[in-house]
Amino acid sequence: MNTKVCVTCHVEKEVSEFYKKTIIKGGKKYPTSSCKECERLRASKNYAANKERRKKEAVEYKGGRCIRCGYKKCLSALEFHHRDPSQKDGSVGQFSRNKLTEKAMLELDKCDLLCANCHRETHERDKTNGRKPSTNNGSSFGKD
Is pTM, for the whole model, over 0.90? Predict the structure, then answer.
């Protein structure tokens, strides 16, 4: 049984519990220093941190607050609304991996920054102004 100790969790595990990494010199594959489980946790944390950082940059680029009501307390409650859906080239998040790219800024320029409430109200207003038919099928939800 071939084993190795993970430098992150300090548990001795079989070498098969480690990813194999190719070393440029010689092209030989060696196990990573952290086990697969620790590598997945690290990658997941990095992804979440980078996603939040990119959103913060995009929100700051668009002025940092809802253009309708001025809300700015919670980053996750701020959303990007495409003024003209037919001009949408994709979601803003898919354009930037590590930083706010020129392509992402071009897409953001087609958007308004709205808080979640104002965004929902905007879509509801669009429905009632003929862009989309109302989906209220007689339920009491949303009625006063």
Answer: no
